Structures are given as C-alpha cells and as structure tokens.
Amino acid sequence: MTATHSTRMLILGSGPAGLSAAIYGARAGLAPIVVQGMQPGGQLTITTDVENYPGFRDVIQGPWLMEQMQAQAEHVGAQMMYDQIIDVDLSERPFRLKGDSGTLYYADSLVIATGAQAKWLGAEGEQLLQGKGVSACATCDGFFYRGKKVVVIGGGNTAVEEALYLTNHSHDVTLIHRRDSLRAEKILQQRLFAHPHIKVLWNQAVDRFVGGGDPEGLVGVDLIDTVTGHKSHIETDGAFVAIGHQPATELFVDKLPMDEGYLLVEKGTTRTAIPGVFAAGDVSDKVYRQAVTAAGMGCMAALDVEKFLAEADFEAVAAE
C-alpha cells in the first residue's frame, strides 16, 4: 500500500532556507513536512569552518550548524522525511508530489528550497583539496587568505567579482581564464584591469591542483596553455573556482518560470508564478548565495505561506 502524507506546508530541501522555513512554519502551527532530499543539511554539510554566521564568536562547523537547525525545527513541530522527490504536479491544489520511496505527498502550499551547487572543473586534486585551499566561494572563505597569494579560475561575472572581492584580503590575486577575452560585463572588466593587485593569465586551463605540506593543503596549480599546449606551474595558497552554479530545479522545468535555471519570484517576496508555491534560498538567488541570506529567505517563505493559507481559508469559508 502506497504511503501518503498530507500537509498544510511541504518544504523541499533541508539547508538553511528549508529549515528556517520549517522553524517559522511550525511556530505558526502549520506542522510542516520537510523532504530532506539527497543531501540532508544542504551545502553546509560539506563546509568545514564557518566564520561568518551571525551569533557565533568562534569558528563553527557547517555540519554542526545544520544539526542544530534541524533539531530546532523538529523541537517546534516540523517533521523530517528522508526522501527525494522525483515527480511534481502543480496543476491544482493540493499539490501532488511523489518521492523516490514511492510515498505520495499532498500539500496546500509548497516551499522549494532545493539549493544550488557550485560547478567544478573536474581537474585532478580538486575534490581532494576542497576545504584545504580549493573553494568555490570567495565571500565565504576569502578571510582565511589574508595576506596570501590566491588565484581565481573563470571568466564570467562571478569570477571577476570574486577576484575583486579577494583584493580586500590579498594583494596578490591572479585571474586564470581559458580564453583570450572575458565574458563578464564591461564595467566589471574595467574595474578588474584597472586594479593594481590583480593580474590575468590568458588562455590557461587548470590541469591539476597541487597539494603539499602536513597537514596537506593547496600549494600550487599546474596549468596548460589552451593554444600552444605548453605546461606551467604557479604557486598559490588558495584557489577559487568561479565558473558558475547549478540550481537544483530540474523537477520544475516547464512548470515554473526560470532565469538561467533559477526560479523566478515576485520582487520582495518568495512567491512564484503559481499561487501557493514559494522559492527560497540559493534555488532562487544567483547573487548572494550565503547561508544567512538563505535563512532569511526561508523565514520570508514561511511568512508568505502563512499569509497565503490564511487568505485561502477565508475565501473558502466565504464561498460556503
């Protein structure tokens, strides 16, 4: 027999956005169900040192922070489901969703907080040295490289913005790009080329991230010229891969409006184009992508849900 769950508020994703929405939704008496997805806790579960989340003087661990958020959500009444949604029907309310377990979920409102993942190069040593000198977020990790030598890999807006941001911490920033021109907006390029602490290496691709030391950390990158094939090596303390992010929105293609894969929401809210469906966190945010902004958007989503359901209940009573 197929298991079914019905809820006033269904949340997809259990990162800072999803769990913050669950906390606020539970406190509003909505008894939310959180479908945790393939990576319970989201991206922070693979982040070691977290130094910029408000309220903690000392460095904390990403997995620990998510454990605390989940415990708080459960304490106030949210229910966690270890499942992965594979099918969604948003054509009518209650919305119908199917889990990989075969479980069916019926929801009066839906909060999509499935997040986004950084794109990686796939070069040798990249995965091994993640968190040990290789990062995909300068805003998150740039502080750890104060006064050190860093490189940024990429050629779009993200890469140029990361390089410019890193000059707040380092006077030796190198942008590595596999082509001979950047894709970034012209105004960003002008700022980049004018900055005295940034240099650009053209037609260079990362062949390998090189580790060393005890404990092991990044010590350099091996490069290959994309035109001549010539190989070279540069020493560096930190490498920031900035080739974009991929929001987890595959389930909603042709069902909800998107921009480059990110769910579109009404300005100043978390409302999508379908009444009763909301989006929060990195799945709809291609600008900030921080744990604290995701948590804030989760709060917004819960408040938007509460207002939507109250209005829907009033209309239903009025129609009787």
Automatic annotation (TrEMBL):
Q: Name one Pfam family in it.
A: Pyr_redox_2
Q: Does the keyword Flavoprotein apply?
A: yes
Enzyme class at the top of the EC tree = oxidoreductase
As to how many cofactors bind and how, the note says: Binds 1 FAD per subunit.
CC per GO annotation: cytoplasm
BP GO annotations? removal of superoxide radicals
Q: Which InterPro entries match?
A: FAD/NAD-bd_sf (IPR036188), FAD/NAD-binding_dom (IPR023753), Ferredoxin-NADP_redctase_2 (IPR050097), Pyr_nucl-diS_OxRdtase_2_AS (IPR008255), Thioredox_Rdtase (IPR005982)
Q: Which GO terms describe its molecular function?
A: thioredoxin-disulfide reductase (NADPH) activity
What EC designation does it have?
Answer: 1.8.1.9
| Catalytic activity annotation | [thioredoxin]-dithiol + NADP(+) = [thioredoxin]-disulfide + NADPH + H(+)
User: Known PROSITE patterns for this protein?
Assistant: PYRIDINE_REDOX_2 (PS00573)
The protein's UniProt keywords, in alphabetical order, are: Disulfide bond, FAD, Flavoprotein, NADP, Oxidoreductase, Redox-active center
What NCBIfam families does its record include?
A: TRX_reduct
* Annotated family: Belongs to the class-II pyridine nucleotide-disulfide oxidoreductase family.
Subunit-level organization: Homodimer.
Descriptive protein name? Thioredoxin reductase
Q: Which organism is it from?
A: Sphingobium fuliginis (strain ATCC 27551)
Lineage in the entry? Answer: Bacteria, Pseudomonadati, Pseudomonadota, Alphaproteobacteria, Sphingomonadales
Gene of origin? Answer: trxB
